Amino acid sequence: MTDALMPSMRRLASHASAFARNLLAYVEANAWVSYAPIFLLNMKILWGIWLYRDLTTGDTSSYFLTAYRWSKQHATDILWSPLYTSFYGEALSLTHDIYAATILHRVAIVLLASVGVLAVMRRLLPPGIALLIAVWWSILPINHDTLYEVHLFGLLPMLVAFLIATTRPTSLQRGMVLAALLVITVLVRNEVSIATLLFAIYCLFEEYRAARADGRVEWRPLFMRSAAYLIPLALASALILFFYSHSIRKFPDIREAANVKHTLNMCQVYAFGHIQRHPELTFSPWTECGPLMQQTFGSELPRLSEMMIHNPAAVVRHFWWNLSLLGNGLQVALFNSTSGAVNPDYADVSAHSTRATWLSLLYFVVVVASVPTMLRHRRTYREYFLQCRGFFVLAAALLVTGLAIVLTQRPRPSYLFSVTVCLMAVMGLSLAALTHRFTRQTNAACFVVAFLALLLWPGYYGGVSAARPLYANYLRLQPFAPLLTGKDKAVLIGDYAGELANYLRLAPTGTRFFDYSLLNSWDRQEPLCDFLQRKGVSFAFLQPRIIAEIRRGPETQERQEPLQTLLGPRCTRLSPESERDWALVRVDSPQ
Q: Which distant-in-sequence residues (6+ apart) come within 8 Å of 213 by Cβ?
């Protein structure tokens, strides 16, 4: 009976093998089979973000003001990423809700970035390895949980430039990439000007080389090809002029505002690095950097050029410190943790990570091991690099830009998203070289890994706390925003003072606001509202920890009197009495 079954088993195995080959061929040939799992994986990772994630703090609240202006008046600020703020503003127009718009535009940016990374990798790598690299990008929290949305948004137009750069190298291709870089430089990230200049030099070289014939330059073809640059650059200029026409800043005001932007940035980043080198210092690098700059460079807000002239040794120390953190920053960008001890970012990162050490070693081994294979097949790879030279030249230009960012700012992964994509592409290219004899099997294995990741990788927000203090405080204060608005108003907002003032749109109206550091000089013997009245505060938002401080009193024993009694007669409570853990009070002037 066994002998009788053998032909049937062979036929079954043959059919199964043919089915597997046909299935793999279908998967390789149809892009949606790659895009669908990446989209679903990101949705799974982000699922529940609207229930757990707080309103974004810091820079996003400042960009919100311009986004809100765009949603109401289609006005923007040419100096502060107008392409991003208009995108954020359209989300506000669509939802009419600050929290919904903030979450919606974050989710959209994360999805577009992940799909864009996959699109670029599919142009450069076999489909299976491209999908694997896109999965790697998608699962890293440093990417999908980036601190501020504007930095990840800056990657989106760069991915468009990457996609164009991977097409057939022609004058039009180079002109389109150059136009994309110009748009990114003016409307998204100004530091990309370095890459734009370097790519423009490459374009001149390519056109000059193509125009040479028999040892002399044929100027007529060179002139004719200039149209391939003029048309894309004209369209890019038109887009820039559109946003400039809607900008609240115009020349000559832009020059002064740009100078303030640059000098404040240098003040803050230098102070942050200085504090890392001198941990005994306790001042805030964001709001109290001026005295340090005055002491070190003779001015509270010097330009980088002025810093280099006045105290070059201090600038060199700043550059060297940032460069010394480069390894840490690249580890966080690629593996979401670092084996080092010093944080290369502003937000907390996982340090002293053994996983980062081993993954870094693996990355290095794979890349180095692929070099002999590329050398053995150098003719094939030479043709490949020539065909994709636009991408590799752009990548090299971005690496130079990244080095400039590292030296002047720090190796913060959020500033280096484009560099991260390039480094991931290097890993993908190395894997492709090492497995070139087993391309079909490698593709099959990569697709299996990607679908396993889709099935097994956990959602990011499933186990986090649902506490959203900034959003909760925004909801508490939002009904009172009209009352708090005006140049004659001074509000003690407390924690998240700057963010709440922005999201409530108090800052543009001239309302003065304070955080709880104002209470450092309160001795608790005096009723709080008497103290606030002396400080010129007209309204005070008392969050739970401050109410606990008030109830504890000078004897550090909790007092049971009603809150109104503890505050003193100068305060009138505006929030409902039913709210026990917070209060908004008006500080009455003396009669």
A: none
